[in-house]
Amino acid sequence: MNHDPLFAPLQLGTIQMPNRIIMAPLTRMRGGAGNVPTALNAKCYEQPASAGLIIAGGTAVSHQGQGYPGAPGIYTEDQINGWRPGTDAVHSKVGE
């Protein structure tokens, strides 16, 4: 058994984290046409899914908030649907 506190569970408000590893927000310019997240975006979040908490970053919440080309957004239906494979992949890894 590992006694390193980094791998100990942590209650953070209403979030029960399996460990104390937090993935910081990332800025990725991997959005597809219409700034819709792609399979590559999903893979970028699926790979570190064993982190205790993943903070998504670099996501535009409106057309006016689009800070740079290729940043995936979350302000259209296509974009929201584009994020689903990534969030589903992360959620499926919880508890592994």
From TrEMBL:
Which GO terms label this protein's molecular function in UniProt? FMN binding; oxidoreductase activity
Q: InterPro entries, from UniProt?
A: Aldolase_TIM (IPR013785), OxRdtase_FMN_N (IPR001155), Oye-like (IPR045247)
Span of domain NADH:flavin oxidoreductase/NADH oxidase N-terminal: 6-93
SUPFAM superfamilies per UniProt? FMN-linked oxidoreductases (SSF51395)
- Mind telling me what this protein is named? NADH:flavin oxidoreductase
